[in-house]
Amino acid sequence: MRDVSEQWPVVRAVLSDVTGRFADLVAASDASALATPDWTVADTAAHVVAIASIYTTLLAPDGGGVTNPALAAVIPTVTVDTVADLNDLALRHFTERDPVRLAAMLRSLVATVLDVTEGTDPERTVPWLGASRVPVAGVLAHLVNELLVHGRDIALGVGAPWSTPPREAALFFELFIVGMMRNDTGVVLDGGRPPGDRRVAVAFRSRHTTPVTLVLHRGRVSVEEPGGPVDVRLSFDPAVLNLVLFGRVSRVRAVLTGKLRVGGPRPWLLPEFLRTVRLPTNAKPLSGN
Questions:
Q1: List of residues 6+ apart from 26 with CB closer than 8 A
Q2: Which residues does the chain have with pLDDT short of 70?
Q3: Each residue's pLDDT tens digit, 65-120
Q4: What pLDDT is attached to residue 1?
Q5: Quick one: which H or E segment has residue 186?
Q6: Which residue segments constitute the domains of the chain, with CATH numbers given?
């Protein structure tokens, strides 16, 4: 993985830019239009604003915790399979649904996130869902991805244009996913099928990320440098990989369009790997892609 210090100014600039695009989209959209089968534009924007609000305290230099007691009690035990319950809880506690106000709140909250992280060590880890530990740079990349994925949801729902540049999407894989795997995943990936004893190594390659190998063994994931033996080689477009991981685009479609290419000596082991290394897929888009 490239030096995080090189990526730090990039993720900060991208976060600022995507926040502006997302806020403009929300402010100009019908609050009641559906962005997903379950969430309106207003619900979707409120979800992202709630995350940004939590990050203003999570990322503070003094390591402030989540101020809402109900959320604070749940967050350390959350897994990818129970994130939907946390999202519902957060939306019940965060009641603002006016799109113009939500857009303004988002701009202000992200400005605070950038302000409190100014000059910090981007590799400093903070607690995230399920007692995992994520580098500060990875948390910013996670917020970028929330904006990109949910911006796409809203744009599809209201018929507006939206773009997800691969170089921006790549920040999520490189800084957040790999960043968490290098530190501590906590219990966030727990809850799937019982882990097997088989070691599965998957080499991830794209034009926009540093080559890396993720290894699943007995339910735990670790990071290895490229060059060792692997079972699966996965070449990917970062924008499409993120959409696949979050259930917005099917694996079949991604493969057929050439955005994901699977090879290696044992490519049939990829589904076993992805049963553990998975992300929430609860808020699927209206398009059914």
A1: 41, 45, 99, 102, 103, 106, 154
A2: 1-2, 63-64, 192-195, 281-289
A3: 777 888 989 999 999 989 999 999 999 999 999 999 999 999 999 999 999 999 99
A4: 56
A5: none
A6: 4-182 (1.20.120.450), 199-276 (3.30.1050.10)
Read off the tokens for 16: 């600022």
Give ∠ CA 147-126-103 in degrees, rounded to 5.
25
| 20 to 73, 195, 249: CA distances (angstroms) | 32, 42, 25
Residues found in the chain: 289
Phi, psi at 217, each rounded to 5° = -150, 120
Long-range contacts of 23-27 (CB under 8 A, 24+ apart): 23/103, 23/104, 23/106, 23/107, 24/103, 25/151, 25/154, 25/155, 25/160, 25/162, 26/99, 26/102, 26/103, 26/106, 26/154, 27/99, 27/100, 27/103
